[in-house]
């Protein structure tokens, strides 16, 4: 049986608990609990935790710290403890062996190579086989900006913004959020210029090429819409609302899985748009 099952906390009825476990009150302790829906740590309360006598030897001399650990997630900014975001600790990292860390490193390196490689190969294709870049003076070469900028924004920058939450595991959460926002912010001008370049190249072509007629076009529009919503909601909810951290903690916690799910959905749609777009261009070029 888990040793924590033997712990009895004296919350409301100190005298009754003391009769069940005589001579086991721990004096001069700052660990006390009071019931108010959820348990909160109150270092100034007169109520003291009462421990089963057989448990004390197994806890050792650091029993206060060991009892405090399970409750820190409920403390908020209680006196004597840092705010929840100050020291983010990943307990599962400590349990990993060499094999797990090797697997983790390989996955991170492979993901980084794929994200950078997709952009590098697109650049090579455009420069080597399609004549490089231009603006409105040459609509055909202006189109070449579209695949490069869209892959850079939707695949490379967005991919690294997602990967940051696995790479920066030892960093403070707020720093990871800021980097996540920076990578998404870098993707915005890439997507905007890429979208403008394809519209111009279609409209300035002789004869003009219709817009939004293919599956690639509609997948791309949906992806851009979801990306814009994700950025606005994420920036407002996870950065702006930190000004009222305590009052908005529940809302932000409930929004995390939704934001993560829609983020991955947007990234998968971006991959689908890229694949269909490159395939469509290859079919049109090769006939």
Would you kindly provide a written description of the structure presented here, covering whatever features stand out?
Its main location: membrane. The chain is mostly helical. The chain folds into 2 domains: 3-81, no CATH class; 98-286, Four Helix Bundle (Hemerythrin (Met), subunit A) (Up-down Bundle), CATH 1.20.120. Helices cover 62% and strands 4% of the residues. The chain contains 10 helices and 4 strands. It has helices at 14-20, 56-59, 63-68, 91-94, 98-129, 139-143, 145-167, 173-204, 215-238, 245-286; strands spanning 7-8, 33-36, 38-41, 50-51. The strands form 2 sheets. The chain has a two-stranded antiparallel sheet. A two-stranded antiparallel ribbon has the order 2-3. Helix 5 runs antiparallel to helix 7 (145-167). The N and C termini lie far apart (71 Å).
CATH fold description of the largest domain = Four Helix Bundle (Hemerythrin (Met), subunit A)
State the helix count. 10
Strand order of the largest sheet: 1-4
Shape: globular
Query: In angstroms, what is the radius of gyration?
Result: 28 Å
Structural class: mainly alpha
Mean pLDDT reading: 75
CATH class identity of the largest domain: Mainly Alpha
Q: What is the terminal separation in angstroms? A: 71 Å
Q: Count the E strands.
A: 4
Main sheet makeup:
2 strands, antiparallel
- Strand proportion, as a percent range, falls in under 5%
CATH architecture identity of the largest domain: Up-down Bundle
Unreliable segments (pLDDT under 50, ≥5 consecutive)? Answer: 1-56, 67-91
SSE order: EHEEEHHHHHHHHH
**Total domain units:** 2
Proportion of residues in helical segments:
55-70%
